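Quick start: load a record and inspect it. Here is RagB/SusD family nutrient uptake outer membrane protein:
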Amino acid sequence: MRKSYIKIILSAVLLGTMVSCHDLDVPVTSELTPDVFPTDAAQFISAAGPAYVALRGNISVEFFHLQTLSTDEAIFPAKGGNWYNGAEFKDLHLHTWTKDHSTVTGNWTWLSTIIGTVNQSLSILETNMPAGTSKTQTLAELKMVRALAYFWMMDSFGNVPIITTYGDYSAHPNAKRAEVFTFLETEIKAVLPDLSDVVDVSTYGRPTKYLAQALLAKMYLNAEVYTGTARNADCISACDAIISSGKFSLEPAVSYLQMFYPNNGPQMKEFVFAIPFDATATNSFPFRATNLHSRYDVPRGMVAKFKMPFTPDAAVSTLPEFYKYFNDANDIRNKEWLTGLQFYDDGTPVTVTTTKKGYDQFYTGSDPSTPYTYQINITPEVTLRQDVASFDVGNDELAWNMGYRNIKFHPDATSLNRNQNNDVPIFRYADALLMKAEAIQRGGAATSGATALSLVNSVRTARSAAALTTVDLEAIYGERIREFASEMWHRNDMIRFGKFENKWGYKTNADITKRIFPIPNSALLLNPALVQNPGY
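Running the structure step on this input writes:
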């Protein structure tokens, strides 16, 4: 099996359920206390487990929605009233979310839970774990989990409270975004020497020196957004620490798509840091891996047996504004999309039999109940045919087939379990190369003979795309779209490239205050020291 250490971590799910609450502003109570637990090596590992369980938490549903549906990458319309969810997805698309938005609240709570859980685990292990290399590394890894949560919190919410002490229940005010940046930079650099430089199954899913460098690189690349000061040279230096390590390499075109399949794992040479998912564990529901299950009442476990293809569910679809960047016919990354007329592997058209009214609910002919068979044809446009106000495309075959679908995180067709095994990469080697290219293009000095053009072309060549002759920021932006679709970086990219206020789909809102989300009302009620973000 692939995730030996993570198997131990996943066994700590029960321990994670012992904690009643981990909101930054609410006391954490647990039966897991320094005087009763832990006392031996196995228990020390288990004591760190809840932090990793919390990290897996909401990342593939609410976090994915927040980072993706707020951009031109995806749209999640209603279908005959289904999936309207109180305008949840409509507001993300239109940039009309409020401090009571459920997805915004869910993300604040999730990230706060990670931070609170890490604080608790650190408190216990610092007290009970004997001094030595194992303790030093374990504590450093936990602090990196917390740093990752704080990075996402800073990126999403801007000004957030900094709390690192378990049992501190006082009301903490927001720290300025630049202060959070400095806190993170200081903490990451402090723990970096204590992290492992081993990259194999024993460290898979655990923070290493290279996660620390990748996170620093991402912070430095966005430093002008976060602090007002560009840090391109520092970004290049952090990327070089990953590149020069020799621990990673680009997957060739033949295995690119396999990086996201249910059997991905530590064998993937590009994974700098990934969050493991296990279909047998709780809360292993990566939303992207279940978007494409058959909606024609055929259980997913029957798909392989009866050659039933993955057909479009009431799923997240992309927008033409995003898909237009997939413009090289030979690029392997095109194959992560479900588009156009659908065929079985043997070339037989995939057909569905319904009625004329079932195919088009607005059919006005005299024979609406007449059977009608059509070949599935997934179309690029998403049109709110039924009702614009309720964000509704209708509830017929035409509606179900609207919008190209990203199937990068392909589900396991043999599993009846809604949970999936697709591990979710957070940082990949390709990101280190493209971050370095962008930092050079933004004014940083090239190193090791690599130019922005050569770095971008190294990625393109690995994906069977034609090499570019010149490169600029727009070309790098497009390359990031092609490389990291459905990997939750597009909102971060759009803001850095000054495109988040553009128009796309049905969105026309150009309010710059939407670059960060509001502090949820529930958090404001719990912590009166918090100050709401501007514009909310």
